[in-house]
Amino acid sequence: RYRLQHTLLRRVREHRLALLTCTHDLDFALAHADRIVFVSREHLYVFNRDEICDCSIAAVQQFLQVNRVAC
Question: How far apart are the first and last CA of the chain?
Answer without folding.
Answer: 22
